[in-house]
Sequence to fold (280 residues):
Amino acid sequence: MNPSTLIGILASCVLLASVLFFTAESPQSFINLPGLAIVVAGTLAATFISYPLKEVLRVVRLVAIVFRRENTYIRDDIAELVDLSRLWLKGDVRSVENALEHTRNPFLRTGIQLVIANTKEEEIFDLLRWRISRLKAREHAEAQIFRTMATYAPAFGMIGTLVGLVNMLEVMEAGDLHVIGPRMAVALLTTFYGILLANLVFKPIAVKLERRTEERLIAMNMVLEGISLITKRRLPSFIEETLNSFVANYHDEIRDPQSPAERREGGEAGPHRGEKGQHA
Fold:
């Protein structure tokens, strides 16, 4: 399971438990099934109206992706590209084709197949960039579904509140606070449900999917760069170093806290100080 998702769920449960057990006389006062039904059913209904059926049905699969710890396999792709570049540099086309049969990255496999077919470099890049753009557009649309649901949920919460207020006004002539109070609480709970679902469920899922798309685009651009270097018949060692820069973790791209010489001096100073202490 994705650790950040697990931490978020646990924190949400602690928050809700605190609200239910420490700020209310009875936890049951925050439970209103009709109000929750208005928010959930209304949000789903509006989402089905807004999007085609096949896109809405992907919502369940997308939620599973959020909970799953997904690996982009960038290191494996780099190793495959380096191995394929060695074979291609030797002119061993048969070995390259055999290696592609075991490649599980379809984007990488398509690019190398185009290289083997002696396709022009510009045409290879046009096709692969189009596939990158298609993936970006598709996954952006998937995340947008949850952003749309995050917009609808508070709106239907307000609708439930208005319905509750109308019901409360009908009994105000009686002036019975024992009736007016619970009706008012029920009216406000639907807004609570709408805001809670929007900011604790739908928006976080959308952000998580968008971050996943960014990581996948980095991986695809890395493969695209590797294929570009293979078409130019660059050395495998150069290709490996170039592709490793895509996954290198730099805290600051502009300035390091220490220069390489300072880091070396700092590493060498430790043993000398230790030896001095021993002589003392």
Notes: The mean pLDDT is 83. The chain is about 80% helix and 0% strand.
